[in-house]
């Protein structure tokens, strides 16, 4: 039996362990539930949901890259009505801890979504995705500017009511991510999700055209892990009391541990699940082993350990 307290907290909510899904890589968890019990992971972070059903971007929507992949999904989804009717009851029935990710085209749309979620039971937190790179208008990447990031978070805070923690998902495609983090913390978030994918492009040298139907896409996978580690480290250094859900190229326990040492209170796993649907379970076990080998008895003592003694 493990003698490690593996639990973690985001705002007022406690999670049994720090390994979460990454939004968008397993819809609302149904695909992964074929392989393991969803209660074995800390939380399922759902695919970002919008107010209306959405078809997403033209195909092809995925392209391989060295140590990573590009996606250009374009926030395809069933819309909040179907999501609340089908996905939330299914997740609750399957004993999953649920973090609902929301995305909007306008500040008002985020407010509408927050209002729809405020009375829903079975939700542990809301991830406010203000950083999807696959939108027509770069002005809709709200996290690229402190004023628009603030406007969205203030609106969600006002509309969500109660005690539901809000987690802002930020883009690494900015000059100073600490500045953006500061603006959303002032606007009332309880946590941050770092990092969303980086905007990229692949050109097929046979067709001599961009490979993705949407031309650009979000880069994920091991190639972006050092960017995630850097962003988490910088933000944790500036705001050590704000929990961070870290993500970006985590494929094994040592990768998860690296993000935790940088300052993550939880780690989301996305791209790795495409190659191995049980990656989350493997990563959880490997991380637990690494912590015990280093004499950690409380997971939370490892959070931000790389900062200890740092000037
Ligand atoms: C997408 O649906 O295009 C991806 C969402 C995201 O990266 O935030």
Automatic annotation (TrEMBL):
Xref: InterPro entries: Aldolase_TIM (IPR013785), DHO_dehydrogenase (IPR050074), DHOD_1B (IPR033888), Dihydroorotate_DH_1 (IPR024920), Dihydroorotate_DH_1_2 (IPR012135), Dihydroorotate_DH_cat (IPR005720), Dihydroorotate_DH_CS (IPR001295), Dihydroorotate_DH_I (IPR049622)
Pfam families reported for this sequence: DHO_dh
Dihydroorotate dehydrogenase catalytic domain residues: 7-291
A GO biological process held by the record: 'de novo' UMP biosynthetic process
Pathway note: Pyrimidine metabolism; UMP biosynthesis via de novo pathway
Gene Ontology CC terms: cytoplasm
SUPFAM superfamilies per UniProt: FMN-linked oxidoreductases
Keywords: Cytoplasm, Flavoprotein, FMN, Oxidoreductase, Pyrimidine biosynthesis
Cofactor entry: FMN
Major subcellular site: cytoplasm
GO molecular function, one term: dihydroorotate dehydrogenase activity
Protein location: Cytoplasm
Similarity remark: Belongs to the dihydroorotate dehydrogenase family. Type 1 subfamily.
Protein name: Unannotated protein
């Amino acid at each position: 039996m493990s003698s490690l307290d593996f639990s973690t907290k985001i705002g007022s909510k406690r999670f049994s362990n720090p390994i979460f899904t990454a939004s968008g890589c397993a819809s609302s968890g149904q695909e992964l539930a074929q392989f393991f019990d969803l209660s074995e992971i800390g939380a399922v972070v759902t695919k970002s949901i919008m107010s209306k059903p959405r078809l997403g971007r033209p195909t092809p929507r995925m392209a391989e890259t060295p140590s990573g992949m590009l996606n250009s999904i374009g926030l395809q989804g069933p819309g909040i009505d179907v999501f609340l009717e089908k996905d939330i009851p299914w997740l609750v029935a399957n004993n999953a801890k649920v973090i609902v990710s929301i995305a909007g085209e306008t500040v008002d749309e985020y407010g509408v979504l927050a209002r729809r979620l405020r009375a829903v039971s079975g939700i542990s937190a809301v991830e406010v995705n203000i950083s999807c790179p696959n939108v027509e208008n770069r002005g809709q990447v709200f996290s690229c500017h402190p004023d628009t990031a603030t406007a969205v978070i203030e609106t969600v805070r006002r509309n969500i009511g109660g005690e539901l923690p809000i987690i802002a998902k930020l883009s690494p495609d900015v000059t100073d991510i600490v500045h953006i983090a500061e603006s959303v913390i002032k606007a009332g978030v309880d946590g941050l999700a770092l990092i969303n994918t980086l905007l990229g492009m692949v050109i097929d040298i046979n067709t001599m055209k961009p490979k993705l139907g949407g031309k650009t896409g979000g880069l994920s996978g091991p190639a972006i892990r050092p960017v995630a580690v850097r962003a988490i480290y910088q933000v944790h250094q500036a705001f050590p009391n704000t929990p961070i859900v870290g993500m970006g190229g985590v494929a094994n326990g040592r990768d998860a541990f690296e993000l935790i040492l940088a300052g993550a209170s939880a780690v989301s796993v996305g791209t790795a699940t495409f190659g191995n649907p049980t990656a989350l379970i493997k990563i959880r076990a490997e991380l637990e082993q690494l912590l015990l080998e280093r004499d950690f008895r409380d997971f939370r003592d490892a959070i931000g350990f790389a900062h200890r003694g740092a000037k």
